[in-house]
Amino acid sequence: MSLQKKQDGYWYGDDHADLRQEMQRYSELNGFPVDHFADVRCTCGNDSFYFGTDEDEGVALRICGRCEDEHLMGDSEEYAEEADIEKHGCVCGAEVFQITAGIYRYRNEDDSLSPDVKWLYLGCRCVACGLVGCYADWKNEFNGYETLLAKM
Length: 152
Prior knowledge:
Elements: E1 4-5, E2 11-12, H1 16-30, E3 36-39, E4 49-54, E5 59-64, E6 70-72, E7 86-87, E8 97-107, E9 113-126, E10 131-139, H2 145-150
């Protein structure tokens, strides 16, 4: 299956590629279309996580569904002390997701891409039912997009 909208009004897909497609659609509507994506994997190789965020503080936490490693994503460690992280769940009741990060970069005066991040998107695909969506996004002024994506 490729990305498809079902009668319940939600989008569903099979993999990270479908999730990236939905995140691109969402980010274009938000006015800051994704320039780069990073599919999230644990150091153990697993790509399914429990996931929580505090969008007000700009904090995201993933917990590996296999090894249970907890990881503050991106630059979240800098803001975690003030955060009230809320665990995400799917409309189907499941709580384990594949995660993809997407960023929008600042533009230079000549309209070329700056290396610096302006906006961060965190998308999830439910491993139980395939629902895809952007579960969190916020302004994220990070210098060096490759470094930020490597910390996901």
